[in-house]
Amino acid sequence: MKRVLSFLTDLVPNNNKPWFDANKGRYKEAQAIFNDFATELIERVGSFDPEVRGLTLKDCTYRFYRDLRFSKDKTPYKKHFGVFIAKGGKCSGHSGYYFHIEPPQATALGGHLLCCGAYNPDSKVIRSIREEFMLNGEALLNAMNQAEGFELEWDGALKRIPKGFPQDSPYAEYFRLKRVLISRPFDDNFLFAPDLVKRVADLFATCTEFNTILNRAIDFAYEEY
What we know:
By secondary structure, the protein is α+β, with helices and mostly antiparallel strands. The protein has eight helices and five strands, in the order ααααβββαββααα.
């Protein structure tokens, strides 16, 4: 992964087509290294989470070339690599397992990150997840506590408990969440470990129950509507 991070680090101040074209070989090498890692990670996650078995690399990874049509930022290339392993694939709307590499000069997520959960659920889905907290909060909290080293993200949470949810619930604060994510940052030493894919898979395995409960709520929302 050192060559992957080296390429991304050099790309950050040189995010333009002439530089990229001159370094196309480095990009292809970095992409191949990451894709090999992602392929093995998908297989390993499928060994403990049957809901993601059979997913392909294309189901779980993203284009490196940015869509500039509606963005004020006109830099043409992403500054990170990521793989999102979720039931139904990356665009399904389900909760899943996300691995992210990002050099310190980039500004996407603030660094390397492991993350699990529902990133940007629509209104019917987040309502169903809030109802899951209301009815099954203890199990959700236990699942989060099982996730080794992961912490719940509160960024973007509502300031008040939304209407229709009890203010006196022991899980009332969780009703404020607009997305439900647990994350764990990691450093370069972790990234460069020879057994990286095993380490990541072992950590993701501790998040399986969390994803399973969230996906039950997400499936319910889709079935209702």
